[in-house]
## 1
Amino acid sequence: MANVLSGIQSSGQLTIGNYIGALRNYTKLQHEHDCYFMVVDLHSVTLPQDPATLRENIESAVALFIAAGIDTSKAAVFLQSHVPAHAELGWLMTTLTYMGELERMTQFKDKSAGKDSIGAGLFTYPSLMAADILLYKATMVPVGDDQKQHLELTRDLANRFNNRFGETFPIPQPYTPEVGARIMSLDDASKKMSKSSTNPASFILMLDEPAVIRKKISRAVTDSGREVKYDPQNKPEVSNLMSIYSECSNMSIADIEAKYEGQGYGPFKKDLAEVVVALLEPIQQRYREIRESGEIAKILREGAEKASATANATLREVKEKMGFIV
Ligand code: AMP
Ligand code: TRP
């Protein structure tokens, strides 16, 4: 049994990229491992957030975790800010991280590009993420492809700590889906589908209404030609839609190619919309029930309690090894 930890930011509403790349794997891993899943609200404020919107996005994300199938009797579901050990180990990890390591992070480069004032938290973000993972001595971290570089830094920090202060942390590995680790934007297959995009046509939200999903998919950019063929190099737009189809239907890419051979993009996109709607409708139904039940506060209290027990023990061990008086 491994310790599993992951987190999703509350900087917008969750997309099917979040679901396919990460959330769905949470629900798979919870049966066999000791799982901790959180909304990383402290990470979210590394870019400016409107308070009322942030609060709504946090609650909505928690409800979607549960609606997607996370069982709180198996996995701890909590908010990063409810377990202060994250901020504290985050600081200690920042002191172990080199500037050069942070400067190399592509997420920092992307998110800071073109901005004149960049919060220091956006720069040190990966050190906090390393703390998130190491607090639970997690070995498996379900994430999408874009987080692999942050995971590498986490591994380096774990090794660095172990070398300086004695064996403490196991070395964590990313756990990514085979096909859906990088779902791209519907308007531009060279960009990751992202909840913080300013163009709503670029993403499908887990809470988009069926009519909206149908419209977004029918308008999704497709490559020239008409063949439904998986070829990410030459047909990135259609290949991305095929990945979404495959992940949402459990049909293999080869099955999808065979099914739409000679049919063109029209019928393929029409069916894709139905596959996505069929996947999301029951999740949306459960989501509404959870929001109405008023149970979120209780879920979060219990989750934070369970997470704190593990996190506080690790933090104490770390501080003792570093020479603090605990
Ligand atoms: P974020 O929305 O950046 O907090 O991402 C939360 C989780 O979802 C991380 O594990 C990401 O790697 C994953 N994720 C986000 N966007 C995508 C995407 N377009 N495709 C696959 N995984 C994604
Ligand atoms: N950086 C991750 C993202 O943007 C979110 C995150 C924060 C995370 N802490 C984490 C993911 C710990 C996995 C483990 O997607």
## 2
Amino acid sequence: MNHLIAGGAGFLGGHLAKSVLDRGGRVVVLDNLITGKKENIPKGADFIQEDVSFWGWELPWRVDRVWHLASPASPPRYRENPWETIAANTKGTENLVRLAKENKARFLYASTSEVYGDPEVHPQTEEYKGSVETLGPRACYDVSKRMGETIVWEGGQLGVECRIARIFNTYGTQMDPRDGRVVTNMVGQALLNKPLTLFGDGLQTRSFCYVDDMVEGLVALMESNDLQATPVNLGNDKEITMVALADTIERVVGSNCGRIEKPLPQDDPQRRRPDLSRARRFLSWSPKVELEDGLRMVVDWFKEIGASGWEK
Ligand code: NAD
């Protein structure tokens, strides 16, 4: 099958492109490199350097699958690029849905757990409508992702086969070491033997999914025949506090560096854990990689690229 992967020069998109190629698919990556890197595009994939928000790209061949992973994803990156983030998830989603319609292709949208905002319901099921702040530093991402889901639903009304993945925190090799996400921050600090940063009391929770599990989940969702324009949580449902994450990273690195506390960023969610019942039931999928094993792979990869690749 022929695949278009928008955002295929990014962390998740690069892993996805590799996996699709390994399964015998053909891949063209569409990416404007706003947060991605050419090195993330696997050998064998075609590449078009364009913006999803502006229609007019020429594809080398007709496509069967359209994946929309093209959006800045880490808070510092979407704060630097709020307008581009809004455009990528609104106009970009519309453009890619229309492209899927023209090609009679199936479409998958990379939505996010951020559509739940700072949730009052725990763990988060797909039925939960969310508690999202429409004004403030996170809104360009959270709210445009919600709008993106609506656009996908409208695509469904036009007859496009659509899938919506609500992706929870994912980590792994090839993350941009300077993207300001908690795993990369702490691993970099631990390797340099600097105190690990905790925001607030560090008792806020997240659940971290290793990228290989996420890619398996995304592929299963794309190929599922049941879930037309229906959101599906994908992630890992083992919840951990930031204090415990820091301890785990220290253990994996073998360092003992202390902690430094910083004020909690505005609108930072207190708790995050996906209810994965829908994914388990319809996709027969579950995350498998244990946090310590995944972190070990990230630490090894940080060592491989060397401190000049990530030292802040
Ligand atoms: P990333 O920043 O590493 O990758 C995003 C890619 O999209 C980059 O290569 C970037 O250059 C490209 N891009 C951004 N805007 C574009 C545009 N207008 N036109 C063309 N290309 C554009 O981020 P990631 O972590 O790989 O995330 C991929 C997708 O998954 C995003 O949509 C993100 O919102 C979603 N997601 C990721 C996570 C996570 O934990 N990594 C969690 C929830 C949702």
